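Long-time lurker. I teach an intro course on protein structure, and each term I like to show students one example going from raw sequence to a predicted 3D structure in token notation. This year I'd like something fresh instead of my usual example. Would anyone be willing to generate the tokens for the chain below so I can use it in lecture? Attribution to the forum is fine with me.
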Amino acid sequence: MNFRIIENDEEFTYAEFLTIEETCFPKDPYRFEQFKDIQNHFYLVARNKHKAVGYCYTKMHGDSLYIHRIAVLDEYRRQGVGKAMMERTIEHAENCMYSSCMLTVDAVNIPAYELYIKMGFKELQTKFRYSFSANVFERAKDVYCVKKGDLQMFDVFFYIEDERIGSCRYNVSVGGCKDFRIKDPAKYVFEALSALAASIIHESGKIYVMTDDADVANVLNRLRFENKKVMKEMVLDL
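-- Reply from a regular --
Happy to contribute to a lecture. Here you go:
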């Protein structure tokens, strides 16, 4: 198969993006908000003639380049498309003087995991990814949401009996938790996550938490979080 890898392809349409997402990630496809976010960062599109058959989307994460999404349509897999996009991404990271490339891969996706190993990636840690879409909890005494400039972004602060126990930055358009911190996970995580759910689930309908903390994982199970996946976080030092 002849294909081209195009950096920041201005002809990459939402319809093409959605076709790839709904085919490759039918249970959790990105939507329009993520597509607009992709257009504001470094991304690659693989094209067979004029057809978009895959894409790779990255963001800066500290001094590393984090590969958020890489996808190839089924009929074009095992033909070097994913590898070519990875190689071009690594080349971009080197040219921009990043210290490393990072990504997270589903542990059951053995072909992708083995490809990353062959390309020099090393496994950092195992994390558990949970999603939550049930009824909200009301265990927190107070929850405060502070808007941050862009109305799509705000910080959530948790208070239990007048003691601030944690906070996180939450992006409504993405539907996930950012920079989640709790002072004492073993003692307060149940209340903190309950407050988080109560404050934001009406905005997006679903929240996600990624953790490698056993105490947090136990509480997520108690809170009836669903869709647990074992994820491998990997790094390639440049």
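Some talking points for your students: Residues 131-228 form one domain. The chain has two domains: 4-98, 131-228.
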